[in-house]
Design a protein that fits this description.
229 residues; alpha/beta; 8-stranded mixed β-sheet; globular
Length: 229
């Protein structure tokens, strides 16, 4: 067995609580804050529960917060519900860093990277937007999520239709290195499922139990990345 492929030991955190704590009293850039662009029923209700979204939680603790999304409808609703600075931009576009502008102590790319088709352009843009001592925090679904693996037994691929890829610790480390960044910290995450069926809620609690014993099979993974000297 190649010991270089042994995963580091890492804690399991609650995704929203963890990101909110990181954002306290910082200048924060939240990429993809509007949610699913293909779900009008979700975006239509944003105003009703904006404070409960990750953007809302960051808004309550950040010293300064900028929200970025490609969906103008989501941006319009969120900016009315939570006044602040919002930018419509595609983070993979060549001029995205110029469109967004500024530098940030914390950039949150929360469950967004798996939706993209050009990782290099996105990471280069985000790298340019980091303050000198800034941190890029990337969260994404775990390629080895126990629930998804179990569903494969029944020939069911548990993936959102907008996703383009899966990530693991080693694949993300390689991608960041290719873009002159390095992993400073690594965690696993669990995430609350609002509402849903009894089966969905049961699955969530089962995942919490699995994560406590075997964190490498958790729902998601969290990376702290910095620019490499």
């Amino acid at each position: 067995m190649d010991r270089s492929k042994i995963l580091p030991k890492a804690d399991v955190v609650h995704r929203e609580e963890y990101l909110t704590a990181l954002a306290s009293d910082k200048t924060v850039l939240n990429i993809g804050m509007g949610g699913f662009t293909d779900n009008p029923s979700y975006t239509a209700r944003l105003a009703d529960y904006a404070e409960a979204t990750l953007q809302g939680k960051l808004h309550s603790v950040a010293r300064d917060l900028t929200g970025v999304d490609v969906n103008p409808h989501s941006l319009a609703i969120m900016s009315e519900a939570l006044p602040g600075r919002y930018v419509q931009a595609d983070i993979t576009a060549a001029d995205a860093s110029e469109v967004v502008g500024g530098t940030y102590e914390l950039i949150v790319l929360g469950d967004v990277i798996e939706h993209l088709d050009c990782f290099r352009s996105a990471l280069q843009n985000l790298r340019a937007l980091l303050a000198d001592d800034g941190v890029l925090v990337i969260t994404t679904a775990n390629a080895y999520n126990a629930e998804a693996i179990l569903k494969q037994v029944f020939r069911y691929e548990s993936v959102h239709e907008e996703h383009t890829c899966y990530f693991s610790y080693l694949t993300m480390r390689r991608l960041l290195e290719m873009n002159d960044m390095t992993i400073e910290d690594f965690r696993y995450y669990v995430q609350t499922r609002a509402g849903g069926s009894v089966g969905s809620r049961s699955g969530y609690y089962a995942m919490r139990g699995i994560s406590a014993i075997l964190p490498q099979f958790s729902q998601g993974i969290v990376f702290h990345a910095r620019r490499r000297d």
